[in-house]
From TrEMBL:
<dbReference type="GO" id="GO:0005524">
    <property type="term" value="F:ATP binding"/>
</dbReference>
<feature type="domain" description="HMA">
    <location>
        <begin position="90"/>
        <end position="156"/>
    </location>
</feature>
<dbReference type="GO" id="GO:0005886">
    <property type="term" value="C:plasma membrane"/>
</dbReference>
<keyword id="KW-0406">Ion transport</keyword>
<comment type="similarity">
    <text>Belongs to the cation transport ATPase (P-type) (TC 3.A.3) family. Type IB subfamily.</text>
</comment>
<dbReference type="InterPro" id="IPR001757">
    <property type="entry name" value="P_typ_ATPase"/>
</dbReference>
<dbReference type="InterPro" id="IPR036163">
    <property type="entry name" value="HMA_dom_sf"/>
</dbReference>
<feature type="transmembrane region" description="Helical">
    <location>
        <begin position="210"/>
        <end position="231"/>
    </location>
</feature>
<keyword id="KW-0472">Membrane</keyword>
<dbReference type="InterPro" id="IPR006121">
    <property type="entry name" value="HMA_dom"/>
</dbReference>
<keyword id="KW-0378">Hydrolase</keyword>
<dbReference type="InterPro" id="IPR023214">
    <property type="entry name" value="HAD_sf"/>
</dbReference>
<keyword id="KW-1003">Cell membrane</keyword>
<keyword id="KW-0597">Phosphoprotein</keyword>
<feature type="transmembrane region" description="Helical">
    <location>
        <begin position="174"/>
        <end position="198"/>
    </location>
</feature>
<keyword id="KW-0460">Magnesium</keyword>
<dbReference type="Pfam" id="PF00403">
    <property type="entry name" value="HMA"/>
</dbReference>
C-alpha cells in the first residue's frame, strides 16, 4: 500500500525520501515543496494547524511565483541584453533591493563566494548594485539569483529604468513609514509631557495608566510597520551569523518597547514609548535623506544607459526594440536621434555628439566605415549603420560596467573600515551590557535609557559609508571627464604619482601621421615602393600604418605571408624573397646616408634597402599645456618611444621633456620602467600594441581612447577623448577624494570616540543619540557629494 503525503494527501512516489517531524512523529512528504512548506509551519510554532485542519492542503509549489520568474533569465535570447561573456565566464550587473550597509554587502559576497560556479561577486552599497561573474557550465544565473533571494534580498539584472522605478517605490514606502512614525511621535510626546512633567498637577493613577495604554496604541504601529526595515536587516545579519549596523538599533527599540509594555501591563516602572517612536522617526528620516544623497551619485552612471533609445528603425522601415538588435542588423538613424547600437557607418555622413563619453563638446564628423556608438546623438545627416555589438557588449554598457567595477573595488582603507565596523558592533553590544550592569547597581531608574543611548548613538553607519560614497562620487565625476576606470586602485595611486612615462606617437602627437617624402635606393618607382609598404603595413595596427593605407592596391597581392615583429616592424615573403619594413635597425641596419635621421620607416628586400619614408606627426595642441602643468606639480617626465628619428628630439625640445628614451623595443620599455628607483611611482600613458607590456607593468597606466584594444586591455584607465589635460583634472580629483575620505573617517571615528564615553556616563539622552547617529551618516554622505560639483 502506497504512503500518502501528510501535507497534501497525494501518493508518495516510490524511492522518494522527504520527511518532516510533526507532532512528535516523522511524517512522509511527496516532494521537496511540501517538505519545505511543512518545515516552515513547524519552525514557526504552528504545528497545531495539522491537528485542527478539516481538509488536506493543496500540493505545495516547489518554486514560488517570484522565484519561478527568475528561471527566465537562463534563456540565451534574454541574456543577450544584459549578460557579457568574458573568457570562460559570464558577467552581469545586478540591482539589489534591501542592501543598507557594508555588512549587507559582506554577507552577500561571503555567501555567494562559497556557491558552486561563482567566479567573483562584488557589491556596492552606494549604488545598490553587484557585479557577478559565473561559469555557465557549473551553475545557472537563476540559481544564483535564488540564493540572493534566500538571504532576504531581491536581485535582478540591472536596468536603469527598472532601478529608478524600484528607487521611487522604496522612497514612497519610506515616506509612508516616516509619516506614520512622525504622527505617532507627536501624539506620544504630548502624552509623555502629561506623564512626566505632571502638567495636570497630581495625576490619578487611573489616568496615568490610561495615558500609558494610549501611548502603547500609538507606538505599536510604529514598531510593527515603520521600524520593519531595521528588523529585517538585523534578522538577515543574525541569520548569517554576523553583526550588521541595524542589530544594535533593533535591539534598542525592541528592548524599549517590550519593557514599556511590561511596565504598562503591570503598572510598575517607566515607559519609553516616546523614545521608541522618536527613535524610529529620526532613524527613518536619516536613512531617507541618506538614500536620496547616495542616489544622486548612483544615478550618474545609471542614466548613461537611458541614452540608448527604446526603439530602432531597421533598413526595411520596421520599428523594433533597440535591445533586440543583433550583430549585422542594418539600422537607419535620422538627424537628431540617439544611436540605438554600436556599429559601422555603411552610408551617409554626419557629425556625432560623443560628449557623454569624451567630455568634449565639439561633434565629430563620421562617414562611411567610421565606428559609432550607442547613446551618442546624430547631428544633421542621415546615417545607415551596421550593428557590430549587442547592447550588453556596447561601449556605453562597458563604461557602466567598468565604473561599477571600480566603485566595488575597495581601497585598503575601506576594507579596514568595514572590518573595524563589524567588530565595533560586537564591542558596542558588550559595552552596552556592562553599562546596564553598572548603572543598574548605581542608579537603577536610569540604567535602561542609558543603555539604549549607548546602543543607538554609537552605531558605526558613518564609518562604513565614509569610503564607498566618496569612491562612487569620484568615479562618476571621472566619467564626466571622459575617463573610464578599470581598476580600483587608480584614485589611490594617482595621488602618489611622481614620474610620468609617456609614448610619443598618438599620445603627445596627434597620431595623424602623413607621408611627406620618399627616398628610393634601387630601380623601383616611388609608387611601387608606396604600394609595397602599404600592403605590409596593412597587417599592423599602429598610427604609422594608417599613413600608408591610401596607397594600397587591393587588386594586387605582393606577399604570400606576413609576420608582425612587435615593436620593430613587419616581414613579408614573396617569391623566396624577404621584405622588411620598420625601424632602420630592423630593416636596413647597414645602410648609411647623409640625412637618415629624417626618415622614420625603412623598406628592404633581402637586407638590401629599397626605400626610406619621411613622416610628419603634428604635436597635439594641449601637449605643451599638459607637460607644463605636470612640471608645476613636481612630476618628472620621460618620453619613452620606439621611434629613433630626429622627430623624437624635436618633440622633446618643444615640450621640454626631462628624459628621452628612443628606439626602445617593448622589452626595452619595460626594462626602463623596472629600472626606475623605488621611490618613483610611475604613470604610463600609451596607445599602441608595443606599449601593452609597459602599461601592464607601470604602477598606474592610461591608454588613449584612440589606441589599440591590446593597450586598453592592459591599462588601469582609458581616456576616451584625446584631451591629455583631463589627466590633470583626474589627479586633482584624486587628491580631493583622498582628502574627503580622510575627513569622513576622521569625523566618523572622532564622533564615536566622543559620543561613546558621554553615552556610557549617561550624559546623552536617547533622542540626542538618535539625532547624532543619523546626523553623522548624513554629514559623511553630504561631504562626499562635494566631489560631484565642478569646484569639488
Amino acid at each position: 500500500m502506497s504512503k500518502e503525503c501528510y501535507h497534501c494527501n497525494e501518493p508518495v512516489p516510490s524511492g522518494s525520501n522527504f520527511h518532516v517531524d510533526i507532532l512528535g512523529e516523522t511524517r512522509d512528504m511527496c516532494c521537496p515543496g511540501c517538505e519545505s512548506v511543512a518545515q516552515t509551519i513547524v519552525e514557526n510554532g504552528l504545528s497545531s494547524y495539522y491537528q485542527y485542519r478539516t481538509a488536506p492542503a493543496d500540493k505545495a509549489d516547489l518554486i514560488p511565483e517570484q522565484l519561478k520568474a527568475l528561471t527566465h533569465y537562463d534563456h540565451e535570447e534574454i541574456q543577450k541584453e544584459f549578460v557579457r561573456t568574458n573568457d570562460n565566464y559570464r558577467e552581469v550587473t545586478l540591482s539589489l533591493d534591501g542592501v543598507s550597509c557594508a555588512a549587507c554587502a559582506w554577507l552577500i559576497e561571503k555567501q555567494l563566494s562559497a556557491a558552486k560556479g561563482i567566479h567573483q561577486i562584488k557589491v556596492n552599497t552606494s549604488t545598490h548594485r553587484a557585479l557577478l561573474s559565473w561559469n555557465p557550465e557549473e551553475t545557472e544565473l537563476s540559481s544564483l539569483l535564488t540564493l540572493i533571494h534566500q538571504l532576504g534580498y531581491k536581485a535582478a539584472p540591472f536596468e536603469a529604468d527598472k532601478q529608478e522605478e524600484e528607487y521611487h517605490r522604496s522612497m514612497k514606502q519610506y515616506l509612508y513609514r516616516l509619516g506614520i512614525a512622525g504622527l505617532a511621535t507627536m501624539q506620544v510626546m504630548m502624552l509623555a509631557v502629561a506623564l512626566y512633567l505632571e502638567v495636570f498637577g497630581d495625576l490619578d493613577e487611573e489616568f496615568r495608566n490610561y495615558l500609558r495604554y494610549v501611548s502603547l496604541v500609538f507606538a505599536t504601529p510604529v514598531m510593527l510597520y515603520s521600524a520593519l526595515p531595521f528588523y529585517m536587516n538585523a534578522w538577515r545579519s543574525l541569520k548569517a551569523r554576523t553583526l550588521g549596523m541595524d542589530v544594535p538599533v533593533s535591539i534598542a527599540m525592541l528592548f524599549a518597547y517590550f519593557a514599556s509594555v511590561v511596565a504598562t501591563v503591570t503598572e510598575t516602572g517607566e515607559v519609553f514609548f516616546e523614545s521608541v517612536a522618536m527613535f524610529t522617526f529620526f532613524l527613518l528620516l536619516g536613512r531617507f535623506l541618506e538614500m536620496r544623497a547616495r542616489r544622486k551619485a548612483a544615478a550618474i552612471t545609471g542614466n548613461l544607459l537611458k541614452l540608448i533609445p527604446v526603439m530602432a528603425t531597421l533598413s526595411s522601415g520596421k520599428r523594433v526594440p533597440a535591445r533586440t538588435l543583433d550583430i549585422d542588423d542594418i539600422v537607419v538613424v535620422p538627424p537628431g536621434e540617439h544611436l540605438p547600437a554600436d556599429g559601422i557607418v555603411i552610408s551617409g555622413t554626419s557629425a556625432i555628439d560623443e560628449s557623454m563619453f569624451t567630455g568634449e563638446s565639439m561633434p565629430i564628423a563620421k562617414s562611411e566605415s567610421d565606428t559609432v556608438y550607442a547613446g551618442t546623438i546624430n547631428g544633421d545627416g542621415n546615417l545607415t549603420i551596421k550593428v557590430t555589438k549587442t547592447k550588453a557588449d556596447s561601449l556605453i554598457s562597458n563604461i557602466v560596467k567598468l565604473q561599477d567595477e571600480a566603485q566595488m573595488s575597495k581601497p585598503k582603507v575601506a576594507e579596514i573600515a568595514d572590518l573595524v565596523a563589524r567588530y565595533f558592533v560586537a564591542g558596542i553590544l558588550i559595552i552596552s551590557a556592562f553599562t546596564w550592569f553598572y548603572w543598574h547597581e548605581t542608579k537603577p531608574d536610569d540604567a535602561f535609557w542609558i543603555m539604549l543611548s549607548v546602543l543607538v548613538a554609537t552605531c558605526p553607519c558613518a564609518l562604513s559609508l565614509a569610503t564607498p560614497t566618496a569612491i562612487t562620487c569620484s568615479t562618476s565625476r571621472l566619467a564626466q571627464f571622459g575617463l573610464m576606470l578599470r581598476r580600483g586602485h587608480v584614485l589611490e595611486t594617482l595621488c602618489k604619482v611622481n614620474r610620468l612615462v609617456i609614448d610619443k606617437t598618438g599620445t603627445l602627437t596627434e597620431g595623424n601621421i602623413r607621408l611627406v617624402k620618399v627616398n628610393t635606393f634601387i630601380n623601383t618607382t616611388e609608387e611601387e615602393c608606396k604600394a609595397l609598404a602599404a600592403e605590409l603595413e596593412s597587417f599592423a595596427n599602429h598610427p604609422i600604418a594608417q599613413a600608408f593605407s591610401s596607397f594600397r592596391k587591393p587588386e594586387t597581392t605582393y606577399f604570400e605571408r606576413v609576420e608582425n615583429v612587435i615593436g620593430s616592424g613587419l616581414i613579408g615573403y614573396h617569391n623566396n624573397s624577404e621584405w622588411k619594413i620598420g625601424h632602420k635597425a630592423f630593416a636596413a641596419p647597414s645602410t648609411q646616408i647623409a640625412d637618415e635621421d629624417n626618415y622614420q620607416v625603412w623598406l628592404s628586400k633581402d637586407n638590401q634597402v629599397v626605400a626610406a619614408f619621411s613622416l610628419d606627426d603634428p604635436i597635439r595642441k594641449e601637449s605643451k599645456e599638459f607637460i607644463d602643468a605636470l612640471h608645476k606639480l613636481g612630476i618628472k617626465i620621460t618620453m619613452l618611444t620606439g621611434d629613433s628619428s630626429s622627430a623624437v628630439s624635436k618633440v622633446a625640445n618643444e615640450l621640454d621633456i626631462d628624459t628621452v628614451v628612443s628606439g626602445a623595443s617593448p622589452q626595452g620599455k619595460l626594462e626602463y620602467l623596472t629600472s626606475l628607483p623605488e621611490h618613483e611611482i610611475s604613470l604610463m600613458v600609451g596607445d599602441g600594441i608595443n606599449d601593452a607590456p609597459t602599461l601592464a607593468g607601470a604602477h598606474l597606466s592610461i591608454a588613449m581612447g584612440s589606441g589599440t584594444d591590446v593597450a586598453k586591455a592592459s591599462a588601469d584607465m582609458i581616456l576616451l577623448g584625446d584631451q591629455l589635460t583631463r589627466l590633470i583634472d583626474a589627479r586633482e580629483l584624486a587628491m580631493k577624494t583622498r582628502k574627503i575620505i580622510r575627513e569622513n573617517l576622521a569625523w566618523a571615528l572622532g564622533y564615536n570616540a566622543i559620543i561613546l564615553p558621554l553615552a556610557v556616563m549617561g550624559l546623552v539622552a536617547p533622542y540626542i543619540a538618535v539625532i547624532g547617529m543619523s546626523g553623522s551618516s548624513i554629514i559623511v554622505v553630504t561631504n562626499s557629494l562635494r566631489l560631484l560639483k565642478e569646484n569639488g
